[in-house]
Amino acid sequence: MITNYLIASPHKEWADALSVQLSNLGLSYDRAFNGKEAQALLHKNNYSITLLDLELKNHSSLEILRYIKLSKLKTVVMFYVPYAGILNEYGMTLGILKRLGIMEVLLPTMTPLAIIKKLRHWSDPNVWRHIPFDPLKREEKEKSLSDDEFTKVNIQEALELGIAAFDHYLRLAPDKYVRVVHQGEPFPVSTIQNYINAGVEYLYFYTSDRLEYINLMNELVRKMIDASPHSDDLIIKSLKSVADKYINEAYTEGIKPSLIEEGKSFCNNVYSLITKDKDLHKKLHDMEYMIPDLFSHSFLVSFYSILISKQIKWVGKKTLESIAIGGLLHDIGLMELPEELRKDSPHHLDNDQKIEWEKHPLLGAKVLQGSPFVNEQVRQIVYQHHEYIDGSGYPNSLTALKIYPLAKIVAVGDGYVNKMTELKVSPRETFKAFLLDRTNILKYEPNHLRALAQSLI
Ligand SMILES: [Fe+2]
Ligand SMILES: [Fe+2]
Questions:
Q1: Greater confidence, 425 or 165?
Q2: DSSP letters along 96-135, please?
Q3: What pLDDT, on the 0 to 100 scale, is given for residue 240?
Q4: Is the model's pLDDT at 189 over the cut of 70?
Q5: Residue 292: nearest ligand to its CA?
Q6: Secondary structure of 282-301 as H, E, C letters
Q7: Ligand 2 centre and the CA of 331: distance in Å?
Q8: 345 CA to middle of ligand 2, Å?
């Protein structure tokens, strides 16, 4: 992935301050002082992030934005607003900027470090993971910090990582944390073991580090799969952990280019693992993954959709990646519904609630519509994952030929995983029960059901 930055601003002081911070972190960037220079640089190079000053002259910032939207779609664009009130002068609002595809608006009150944090958030985690993050170093001692800022990670998994890619904390009480491992240091095995013995189940890291965590775990899982013999239990647990954090990040922070890249790595890891171990699906059942929460559900749907796709000849690598990401995100529309309706199946809802619940494919497609980084394949999977070939599905009651082929695969994965969660029996038993329900034979493509059967034999 491309990782450098373009700062296009006539405000020398502001751009200088930011450049110093980037240089200190060893990150590369280019500078442009007017629109013409910015366009020439954009033509020559690929930037992961372009910072456009609203006051850019000689090709305005909006002209540069138009150029980017036509020929440099992959760069994330942030706008710098040099003083309050300038938006009014340009007849702009924050809402208009968002609609134009501006991912962040940088205000004059933001310090260079605050801007660096924004850049980090939208950058390739691979790069940031290896940067000693001194300028953003957090305080040493026990701190009162909000639970909302932290993401938990299984302590055993953290230990497996060896080196801490970022600071890890112990939760002492609600909103009270103490840092136990510093970024870049090895995990102190005996101390961590003592915590485990004392019944500690989780360590915590800043949610702002979550993308780097996903990146790190994907890399670690790849190494574990390559190593032989490998521990399937640990790999599946790690994959599950990646999927949890992935879905959480997508649901709460939105889709970033790096998240799409991590979705592909997740897909490749699952694919390699099921290629290496033909009995893997049995282990999924053993490990109490039947907890019917939305994250486990999405992980399993993605997993089984990959498993089915592996048996289908026309599914190539890129398509498989879309299926995996579509599986992870298929129910993202549920997050748009009131909390009591955010369930993976509508069994326990009354009729009115069910009508609301069935809007989630459309809501999900709308959420993803706003993200230029999600491809059409993923969007269609999300939109059509409840369409069935007999026309009994929603939102459009489409029939066989009209349904997007990849959505049909994820639909089988979804239906099958729901059955597994409902019955809490082995994957094979689930499949038998799934087929005994005659409506399923009518709802799903016979060759997809065959593919699922083959992968469970
Ligand atoms: Fe759904
Ligand atoms: Fe689902």
A1: 425
A2: HHHHTT--EEE-TTS-HHHHHHHHHHHS-HHHHTTS--GG
A3: 83
A4: yes
A5: 2
A6: HHHHHCCCCCCCHHHHHHHH
A7: 5
A8: 7
**Which ligand is closest in space to the CA of residue 387?**
1
How far is ligand 1, taken at its centre, from the CA of residue 219, in Å?
29
- Quote the ligand 2 centre to 154 CA distance (angstroms): 25
With a CB cutoff of 8 Å and minimum separation 6, the contacts of 435 are 441, 449
185 CA to middle of ligand 1, Å?
Answer: 42
Query: For residue 361, how far is its CA from the centre of ligand 1 (angstroms)?
Result: 6
Distance CA 452, CA 436 (A): 15
pLDDT for the residue numbered 103: 85
Measured from the alpha carbon of residue 294, the closest ligand is: 2
What domains, with CATH codes, occur in the chain? 5-123 (3.40.50.2300), 137-227 (no CATH), 233-456 (1.10.3210.10)
pLDDT band at 98 (very low <50, low <70, confident <90, very high): confident
- Judge whether residue 135 has pLDDT over 50: no
Helix axes 210-226, 232-253, angle to 10 degrees: 160
Distance 457 CA to ligand 2 centre (A): 24
Centre of ligand 1 to C-alpha 384, Å, is 9
Task: Give residue 409 CA to ligand 1 midpoint distance, Å.
Answer: 13
User: What is the pLDDT at residue 446?
Assistant: 95
Q: Which pLDDT tens digit goes with each residue over 394-441?
A: 999 999 899 999 999 999 999 999 998 888 888 888 999 999 999 999
For strands 143-144 and 104-106, give the pairing. unpaired
Burial label, 279 (beta-carbon count in 10 A; 0-12, 13-18, 19+): exposed
Predicted structure pTM score:
0.77
- Among all chains, which residue has been given the structure tokens 């970033």? 256
CA 282–ligand 2 middle distance (angstroms): 21
Ligand minimally distant from the alpha carbon of residue 295: 2
More confidently predicted of 240 and 29: 29
How far is the centre of ligand 2, averaged over its atoms, from the C-alpha of 205 (Å)? 28
Rounded to whole angstroms, the Cα distance separating 60 from 358 reads 45
Q: How far apart are CA 52 and CA 78, in angstroms?
A: 6
Of all ligands present, the nearest one to the C-alpha of 247 is 2
